[in-house]
Amino acid sequence: MIRTRITDLFGVKYPIIQGGMIWVSGWRLAAAVAKAGAVGLIGAGSMMPELLREHIRKIKKEDPQGAWGVNLPIFFQYAEEMVSIILEEGVKIVFTSGGSPKKYTHRLKEQGIKVAHVTATPDLAVKCEEAGVDAVVVEGFEAGGHNGRDELTTMVLVPQAVDAVKIPVIAAGGIYDGRGMAAALAMGAEGVQIGTRFAATIESSAHDHFKKAMLHASPTDTFLILRKLIPARVIKNTWFERVFEAEKQGATEEELLRIIGEKRTKIGMFDGDLEEGELQIGQAVGAIRDLPSAGALVLDIARDCENILRGGVFR
Question: In CATH, what is the architecture of 5-205+289-308?
Fold first, then answer.
């Protein structure tokens, strides 16, 4: 057992948070992680409000006492409705992202909910603390999906954020095994949030084609695009090449939106179109070579981290 303020805050055995990824993090994945002694998150960013309610009710039935919660992008058009559902359904943990943490933190904490916010710079971590969150996730440039514009890597970001705030810091971005977790804790983080590695698990709702693409990806197969809109790290494919070329030619935001089209993440990550879909994933994808159960993954990461912290070697 690795005890930190994060394990105490969420009542878990391991200070590991499974990222609430769009199209990937449904109730099955969150429940499997929670049952293994970590924090599981439902990714609300790709759901309609009533689908989120359905996922919450299913996980409540599967694991009523577990440490699971919801990841809510604040900029999402249905965020207000989803906050109401979160409150109505008695969710105990919420991770917010993609907007000001001031918007919902007070309202959520009034109902006894533990709140963390995801950000990408030390200065913004301070703003999260000022907004009253219980913990802050600082996510480095290595991470998949929507990313910070300042390109701070996890190794640089984490210790500076730890020095800047008094609340617990959770490290994210490029962490996929016990070595990364031990490194994050050594830098002063009190937990880790892991996305990409949990996307490639049995319980992940990613399409099988997407999971197979993760298994065969190299460390250089991802790239950050859409810097004029909301930066996103994706696997390079036919759709990526069109967007990348348009950006090189100086396309406007309106032109990029037309090229992107609608529901690109669903097309790629959930429907499995590996050429025309948007495949959001982090640089850690180059290390993935198997599809374990989420529970086994939690235990492997925690065991290896504990071994390293005791002065052992990585197996």
Answer: Alpha-Beta Barrel (3.20)
Model confidence over 145-194: pLDDT tens digits? 888 888 899 999 999 999 999 999 999 999 999 999 999 999 999 999 99
In the chain, where are the structural domains located? Answer: 5-205+289-308, 217-285
Q: What one-character DSSP code corresponds to residue 170?
A: E
Q: Give exposure, 38-65, as e/b (b: 16+ Cβ within 10 Å).
A: bbbbbbbbbbebeebbebbebbbebbee
Q: pLDDT digits over 7-50, tens only? A: 999 999 999 999 999 999 999 999 999 999 999 999 999 999 99
Give the Cα separation of 137 and 194 in Å (integer). Answer: 11
HEC string for 27-44:
HHHHHHHHHCCCEEEEEH
**pLDDT value of position 315:** 55
Residues 168-196 as b/e (b if ≥16 CB within 10 A, e otherwise) read bbbbbbbbbbbebbbbbbebebbbbbbbb
